[in-house]
Amino acid sequence: MKRVCIMGGGLGGLMTGALLAKEGYRVTVLEKNRIIGGGLQSFRRGKYLFDTGMHIFGGMGPDGQIRLICRYLGIEERVKTAPRRVVVTDACDSYPEAYTEKIHALTEQEPLYRLKPSEVEYRLTDLSLTAKELVEQTARSAEELRLLAYPSLLYGGREDSPAFLHALISCAHQQGTYTFTDGSVHFAELLAEVIENAGGEVRSGETVTGIETSGRQVSAVHTDKGTYTADLYVNDMPVSKLLELTPAGAFTPAFRSRIGAVPYTMSAMSVFIGLKPRSMRYDGEAWFAMQDSCELWSMDECAEEAWPQAMFALPSEDSDNPGFAATITAVCPMNYDYVKRWEQSVTGQRPKEYYRWKERMMHQAIDVICEKLGASREMMAYMDAGTPLTIRDYYGTPRGAMYGMHRSSSNPLQSSLSTRTRLTNLYLTGQDVNFHGLIGTSLTAILTAEAIVGHNTIVNKINDTI
Ligand SMILES: Cc1cc2nc3c(=O)[nH]c(=O)nc-3n(C[C@H](O)[C@H](O)[C@H](O)COP(=O)(O)OP(=O)(O)OC[C@H]3O[C@@H](n4cnc5c(N)ncnc54)[C@H](O)[C@@H]3O)c2cc1C
Fold first, then answer.
1. Which of 30, 36, 54 gets mutated to test ligand 1 (max ligand atoms within 8 A of its CB)?
2. Which of 189, 265, 309, 378 meets the CB 3.0–4.6 Å disulfide criterion with 294?
3. Is 84 touching ligand 1 by the criterion CB < 6 Å?
4. 419 and 328 share a domain?
5. Does residue 164 sit in the same domain as residue 295?
6. Which of 234, 272, 215 is nearest to 3 (CA)?
């Protein structure tokens, strides 16, 4: 049985591990945090349960990509999700035909998006059209412009973001949006179970500290607790972290400087609110809210006093009081530069000034939540917030980037990575490689696993389950 060592136990690492476990590989996943899952982590405060990095997603409809992958992995019945309606603007909620046609045409470029076998293993997608151009060409009014632009919060949209990326998310959302109902971490736990049932292990609280190479191969991975050897290695850590941990000669200077020059997607402040019982009605809706002054393609750029310009707010239902909300989580794009002055500090030991600033910004966000969701502070029993530094330190992403490396229409080659590397037994997975989010990272995991087991092998097997 071939052994695979996976560095990083986020969605990318666990999904790749689960797919390889199904193919008969013995998988070891090494995750630095005590709780596995990376962006799938959830946390509890008393009776309140909050998700940290997986709030809304597509792919769970009858033919949805995530549903079909889960069916193949044998966990479909145990994944707990519920549909959610996303409200963007009260003024309009139907998409112009031209826009819908265009996003469908764009996704047709990528057979994997529909879980269809592809002729070639690696092909550079045409990213020349920008999301901004797509939206401006198809929106017929200012309200429609906002409706069409809202997915940009879900990929950190900039003026040069590719329309293709926008289309992948928008298309999936048009087919139905969902949330996890029992904490997103339960999805991570199900993937870990697939790995463990096949004889593998998922080791949490174990930080990769060094990667040893010999010639064009990885020979060992060192952690703060021990050393691991395997036949194959897969990286799910941010690619910048991989480069930091490998010897200088393992990758070419050109590759290192290319990765060093890639900009990162925007960061965010997440606000977590626990509500008093039966204080706010729950109607299954999630809100995308934007100030009139919000710049659609730079939602994180504004003066601190004018922050937040946009947010995604998601109430959850109270299982003890159906019809009422238990929590509200709001993700508000925030520029990393706001917290740069404290970037040398570590979790739990930041200066007092940081905590005062965080409190102030959290209340600015709560003001918007109250206004947009008709909530009030009297309803709230618990409130806390995570900043760009929280994201940076928990997931290890540079500048607390929500979605990893930024993709640009003007420089597609810079951020498009192959799942194979110069080191013949090392593969890449995770949001930096291709696409992010629940669907993007999972599809990338298929590409990574297929680079090992054979082109189209897994996609064909998934199709056999339909
Ligand atoms: C605030 C926020 C909200 C989001 N909302 C959504 C959403 O609603 N819908 C959606 O689809 N996507 C959302 N995303 C994006 C989504 O969370 C990510 O795209 C996805 O989880 C990426 O998975 P990954 O495995 O590539 O990376 P990660 O989940 O970051 O996993 C990488 C793992 O590597 C580990 N690691 C790093 N360094 C080391 C080391 N030295 N040793 C061992 N382990 C290490 C990290 O701890 C982490 O667990 C959101 C992200 C954020 C930050």
1. 54
2. 309
3. no
4. no
5. no
6. 234
User: Ligand 1, atom 26: nearest CA belongs to which residue?
Assistant: 430
Considering the domain architecture, whether residues 360 and 433 belong to the same structural domain is answered as no
- Answer yes or no: do 297 and 330 share one domain: yes
Q: In sequence order, what are the beta bridge partners of 273? A: 328, 383
Asked if residue 301 and residue 173 are part of one domain, the reply reads no
CA distances from 194 to 36, 69, 369, 429, 449 (A): 14, 12, 39, 18, 15
pLDDT digits (tens, 9 = 90+) for 174-193: 999 999 999 999 999 999 99
Do residues 297 and 159 lie in contact, with contact meaning Cβ atoms separated by under 8 Å? Answer: yes
DSSP string, 59-72: --STT-HHHHHHHH
Residue 226 lies in a domain: no
Q: Is residue 381 part of a domain?
A: yes
CB 91 within 8 A of CB 143: yes
Residue of 84, 438, 442, 444 to mutate, ligand 1, most atoms within 8 A of C-beta: 438
Query: What separation in Å is there between the alpha carbon of 344 and the centre of ligand 1?
Result: 21
> Separation of 402 CA from ligand 1 center, angstroms?
8
What total of structural domains would you count in the chain?
2
CB contact at 8 A, 10 and 37: yes
What one-character DSSP code corresponds to residue 57? B
Ligand 1 atom closest to the CA of 312, numbered from 1: 8
Whole-number mean pLDDT of the chain?
95
Pocket test of ligand 1: the residue of 40, 170, 221, 395 to mutate, having most ligand atoms within 8 Å of its CB, is 395
CB atoms within 10 A of CB 453: 17
Residues 378 and 423 grouped into a single domain: no
Contact 302, 410 (CB under 8 A): no
User: Model confidence over 122-178: pLDDT tens digits?
Assistant: 666 778 899 999 999 999 998 899 889 889 999 999 999 999 999 999 999 999 999
φ, ψ (nearest 5 deg) of residue 282:
-115, 125
The atom number, within ligand 1, closest to the CA of 396 reads 37
Same domain flag for 460 and 321: no
Alpha-carbon gap, residue 39 to 333, rounded angstroms: 16
376 Cα–ligand 1 center, Å: 31
The CATH number for 418's domain is 3.50.50.60
Domain membership of residue 76 as a residue range: 3-202+257-262+403-464
Q: In this structure, which residue's CA is closest to atom 51 in ligand 1? A: 53
Do 250 and 259 form a contact (C-beta atoms < 8 A)?
no
